[in-house]
Amino acid sequence: MFDRCQWLNEPRAWRLDKGALSVVTDAATDFWRETHYGFTRDSGHFFGCDTAGDFTATLRVRAAYESLYDQAGLMVRLNAATWLKAGIERSDGEALLGSVLTLGQSDWATGPFTGDPADFRLRLTVAAGVLRLQASADGQRWPLVRLCPFPAAAAYRVGPMCCTPERAGLKVLFSDFVVGAPMSKDLHDLT
């Protein structure tokens, strides 16, 4: 899938090798829009591919989060004011599972991740104006992280995302990136 992706804010150091994407983040990179902090940032690294409408995307993310707001995960984006980013983010002294939904302004929801935050998977489905976000420690069990409205569109851009607002140098390895038709599993089906 990575061969179909294009950069928004290409990092200085990155490499594609055998189906995996390695990235080292640049300094002062982030995605955020107004809420609480009062500023807008659209400088994070995003390697996205276009979809033909509704989709399900999965991604494996490996990184060692060290500094405040170090983050890596998956993003779906319509434009600079309409997107969701999700993944592990360092906050309050630990690596938390979080998501930021931006519909004009950003929200932020975080919680503990019971697996190894240095190696996790995300699954994101957008279908019929609804976004479903799931996270997995093993690629087998997929608990729900977030269910929310998201604008219906003819196409989306989805792919790996990483940022380091407070520093440079987070090393991230993205792999197992797949985008396909939206899954139709029951909401409480964790497979």
From TrEMBL:
<dbReference type="InterPro" id="IPR009784">
    <property type="entry name" value="DUF1349"/>
</dbReference>
<dbReference type="InterPro" id="IPR013320">
    <property type="entry name" value="ConA-like_dom_sf"/>
</dbReference>
<dbReference type="Pfam" id="PF07081">
    <property type="entry name" value="DUF1349"/>
</dbReference>
<dbReference type="InterPro" id="IPR015987">
    <property type="entry name" value="UCP022704"/>
</dbReference>
<protein>
    <submittedName>
        <fullName>DUF1349 domain-containing protein</fullName>
    </submittedName>
</protein>
